Amino acid sequence: MHGAVALPVAIGQAACNHPGRRRSDSSLRGDIDRSMVSIVWTRIGVSALVCCTLASCGGSGSDSGESTSPGNRPMAASSAAITFDAPARSVLPSGAVSFSVTGVAHSAECTLDGAPATPCLAEGSRRGAIDYEALASGLHRLRVAVRAQDGEVLRSAEHVLEIVEPDVVVYAATPGGIAAAIAAAESAKTVALLEPTAWVGGMMSGGLAKTDIGPRGHEILGGWAAKFFARVHAAEIAKGACGSGCSQYDFEPHEAERTFETLLAEARVIVERSAQLTSVTKEGATLRDVQTTRGSVSGKVFIDASYEGDLMAAAGVSYIVGREPRPTGDVPTDPAALALYEDDAGTLGYRLPRGGGADPYRTPGDPASGLLRYLEPRPSPIPARGSGDDRVMAYTYRLCVTDDPGNRIPFEAPAGYDPADYEMSARLTQAWIASQNIDPAVRMFNPEPTVLSTSRAHYKYDLNGGSTFSIDMTAPDMNQAYVEASEAERERIRDAYRHYIQGLLYFWQTDPRFGGLNQKMSRFGYCRDEFADRGGWPHQLYVRQARRMIGEYVMNQNDVMQNGRRPPITDVIGFGAYNIDVHTVRYMAAPANWPDGTRRDAIVLEGFLIRHAPNDEPYPVAYRSLVPIAAEADNLLNPVTLSATHIAYASLRMEPTFMILGEAAGIAAALAIEAGTPVQQVDYGALRQRLLARGQRLSR
Fold first, then answer.
1. Euclidean distance between CA atoms 244 and 255, whole angstroms
2. Rounded to two decimals, what is the model's pTM?
3. 502: three-class secondary structure by DSSP
4. How would you classify the pairing of strands 168-171 and 191-194?
């Protein structure tokens, strides 16, 4: 997001409007509370022009924009200007405040809280920084004086930075994390939102622009989630981008990011970017602080809103990766056992893809030639249906594409492209054509329209993965290796997905076996005005499933299907409304019955599953599914990798649900702080009352 929003935070005026005298912290804080300045929110923080023009800073004196010592040049004779790239508040006591200089400048000296000045701008450079370490909580003044080559001061400027200790620390600025942070901040709590990347918004600003809402999802959206969708929809309407088919759940990724930024700013949430979690400090079951690549942050209550469950895992909370087993034998009749029995748990039987059989070997019929790329060898033995494992469903990138010639970046081959890597797609498509006479141009590559592109005659589209060798992929060295990987290894996997998807789209565009699909693909491309800093490529890998907490209450398939096997949930904090949606877990070679009556090895898939509740009825979610076992962590909430089975999570994993649960987590965090209780002991009656007051829907 490159646009600017008005951020109602008061900085700089205290230093500008009262020249010629020092201000006490208490006096300055009063101005910060009362006055307003316009600042610009960017990916790297808040950029504020402080005391650098006569228009913005009148008067004279050592704290004003003009330095009036006897040897100084008059301000009007100089074009130097200083811009700070820094927030007004931070929770990190160590760091740096960057600034840039425009116009005539030779060097700069910086001071922190009146300490001796030090050089902070290399000769000939236009960017500098004031480093600081172990600052105490409170207000701190960082001052820059720019000098000409002869040593005369051309300009001076001051930035006021407040170091604060947060009440609530939220890890990851996903939609669920943003909802949690804002809910806690609107409950009069100081909130730090630690984001491991440079961007906020997770999947919704990272390509998922056709919201997975479900046929009845609109019935359960209230509270902050409804506010977000209303705001982003209004923005699309105002700019004329909402065509005749645009719903309030369709938007552009950059518009979602801008809306998230605005709402965070309005709530005065302190956002710290590029702060990757490294470790956690605990005393017994209580988290005290988290260590990140940018420093340590303490808090009273912590919320893990990451897609991976990294904070939960670092805190020593129990979790599972993969699929729970289904008990063998008949469906139990004992009520307690029946409540935990899931009809679709565990490994599913493998099957041929749509279209029938395709040979899995590089040289058809020759196992010695090796398997096609992305195929796994047949397990020995093949897992029994219902057995458990540690596998997750396919990942992908949700792409924003367009057929607008003026806004299109063509699909091109990535570096190291090898068409042989995509032979499995060609063979499966050929089998599909042979068995069902399908037209690849009609049945393949069907991105869904969202809003109008820059040319109002064309659309932007959301491209998602399908069931068989689409932009989805599951492989041992990709998603199956991601969850417990280091950050360096995760980055390798992200790059592998980017290479795979870019290569597949180019393959569909150029391989003649796809017929008319070649021409269809050539009309599309990545959106030039989305993710411009990454060549149109999203910043967020679609991690559909990773760790899942084992908490006080484990949501399961029976809760989602509402089949009467479990007692009704009594601590409702919101609803889920999407069907159970498990993408492919494994591609492998295995014996299969071919259309010609023979049985031989073929490309098969395993794990894909769709289940709908009767009438797609929304289902309640328990507060207890957000809290860990008390003995493991008593001040941690988890609204994203919550306590749920593989099957239940396949429905819960949608962004609107995460937003609903995130808001509940933020309110629960505030209540736990106010009452001085563990999160497991939050008064549900009070939580329910506050959620209802915010417009959350808690009954059907």
1. 19
2. 0.88
3. helix
4. parallel
Tokens representing residue 635 in the block: 């001040």
Domain locations along the chain: 13-163, 168-323+547-577+621-693, 399-534
Using CA atoms, how far residue 630 sits from 316, 553, 588, 634, 671, in Å, is 12, 12, 41, 5, 17
| Exposure class string for 376-385: b at 16+ Cβ within 10 A, else e | bebeeebbee
Q: Measuring CA to CA, how many Å separate 491 from each of 279, 306, 317, 414, 695?
A: 19, 16, 25, 17, 39
- Range 17-41 average pLDDT: 35
**What sign has the CA pseudo-torsion 256, 259, 265, 267?**
negative
Taking only the tens place, the pLDDT of each residue in 458-513 is: 999 999 997 678 999 999 999 999 999 999 999 999 999 999 999 999 999 999 99
* Domain covering 168-323+547-577+621-693, topology: FAD/NAD(P)-binding domain (3.50.50)
DSSP label of 382? P
pLDDT (tens digit per residue) in 262-277 = 999 999 999 999 999 9
The whole-angstrom separation of Cα 41 and Cα 257 is: 11
Equal fold, 13-163 vs 168-323+547-577+621-693: no
Q: What is the pLDDT of residues 418-430, one digit of tens each?
A: 999 999 999 999 9
Residue 437 has a CB neighbour count (10 Å cut-off) of 7
What is the Cα–Cα distance from 652 to 226, expressed in whole angstroms?
A: 18
Lowest mean pLDDT among 22-26, 486-490, 580-584, 679-683: 22-26
Distances, alpha carbon 225 to alpha carbons 129, 178, 622, 661, in Å: 38, 10, 18, 10
In DSSP notation, 286-341 reads EEEEEEETTEEEE-SEEEE--SS-HHHHHTT--EEESBPPPPSSSPP-SHHHHHH-
CATH number of the domain at 13-163, please?
Answer: 2.60.40.10
